[in-house]
Amino acid sequence: xxxxxxxxxxxxxxxxxxxxxxxxxxxxxxxxxxxxxxxxxxxxxxxxxxxxxxxxxxxxxxxxxxxxxxxxxxxxxxxxxxxxxxxxxxxxxxxxxxxxxxxxxxxxxxxxxxxxxx
Length: 118
Description:
Layout: E1 5-6, E2 9-13, H1 18-23, E3 33-42, E4 54-59, E5 65-71, E6 79-84, E7 88-89, E8 97-101, E9 104-111
């Protein structure tokens, strides 16, 4: 069995909300927060390229994390990653992408941003 080539990318940067703007500055930034993930998984040698790879999310023992598992079929083994367990923003205009083209399975998503309102 072959291993799929992958390039996970984590989108993590500080959030400059009102609280952080008053308590931090550019020289002393707030801690980075994971805001999303970009997975580009390469499957150049699939036996049946008409069947797209898929993914499934499994709950982890730690409620703050989940495991995402990519499955493509022969000759590739499944691969899994541990990700932050938060609600996804699945709107295309906010960067969600799930597609399989030219041997590359792309899954890009960001997490929902909750705004504080009184």
